[in-house]
Amino acid sequence: MATQDLVTAIQALNMAESLSRSSEQGARVQLVDTLQSVQSLVDTMSSSQASVVPLCLDLEGVNLSRHGTISFIQIWIHMLEQAFLVDVHTLGARAFEVSDSKGNTLRTILESETTQKYFFDVRNDSDALYALFGIQLAGVKDVQLLELASRRGPKHILNGLGNCIEQAQFLEEPALQKWQSTKQKVVKMFDSKNGGSYEIWNVRPLPQELIDYCVGDVQFLPILVTTYESRLNVQWSERASVETVKRLQESRSPGYRPKGKHKLFGPKKWRFPPSPRDARSSTTVLSLPATGSRPATQEHIPVQHAVK
Which residue, 151, 140, 1, 176, is CA-closest to 59? Predict the structure, then answer.
């Protein structure tokens, strides 16, 4: 095993042990529902140490898109092993405009190219932020696309977060069962057939099950990124970056559709790659450099439907 691969493996193992422990015991969570707490969070995120560590984010809301509302933005800061739930329903646009002593705001951080952010399927999150608050996300790595890019075999169908966590097998069984149980409980809370509704995101105080659900959607993103990036060569890493930018651009376009079966599928060029003869011809013409690239080494991952 190469030195860098060994370092990555050790890093992933340490992260997995930490995550399993925090998942079983319950991660630290802070509700950000006042202007003062927003200012404190922004100061934390823009500090010299935290600014070099990617932020892990997700959004929740009622019909989350340009046609709905944003209730929460959950932010996982891996360095602190802590989640912050920004109550957008309560604070409204003020959540994005409160500045720290250096003039940073949640808006400037979300729009910063240099502050790296992990999202899992960023499309509807980007759509809602842009349409409702005029925020143009940047500096994003879409973890769903990293999984697809690193996958050996068919790339037709996207995986959901649940499938990714289960297939990566970094959580010990008790922690995995707890995560799955929380997901199942909350899905029932949304089900209109059982008297549920997504409006529960706007109930205060927020039920503990929803708090746990929010944390579970962001705290595992760093280890997923570490896992997938260890399998990527230079070319596939670049393709994932290009497709992420496309997702951001398309989500802000007038014709973007937040729902539909089209969202289950990977990029067309990934689904229908060039034939071996075309690939050889393309490589010869372009003379792509091989420096830093290496073939993917992961086992085949079964293709499943995507549910975030």
Answer: 140
Q: Is residue 299 included in any domain, yes or no?
A: no
pLDDT in tens, 33-68: 999 999 999 999 988 566 678 999 999 999 999 999
Rounded to whole angstroms, the maximal C-alpha distance in the chain is 61
- The total number of structural domains in the chain stands at 1
Query: How far is residue 215's CA from residue 174's CA, in Å, rounded to a whole number?
Result: 17
Q: What is the CATH number of the domain that holds 226?
A: 3.30.420.10
Is residue 305 domain-resident? no
Range ranked top by mean pLDDT from 7-11, 130-134, 290-294, 303-307: 130-134
* DSSP codes joined into one string, 79-124: TTTEEEEEEHHHHTTHHHH---TTS--HHHHHH-SSS-EEESS-HH
Instruction: Give the DSSP letter string of 35-53.
Output: HHHHHHHHHHHTSTTGGGS
Q: Which range of residues forms the domain containing residue 175?
A: 3-274
Half-sphere exposure of 291 (CA within 13 A, CB side): 1
Would you say 211 and 86 are in contact if contact means Cβ atoms under 8 Å apart?
Answer: no
CA-closest candidate to residue 161, choices 224, 209, 211, 116: 224
Flag whether 286 is in a domain.
no
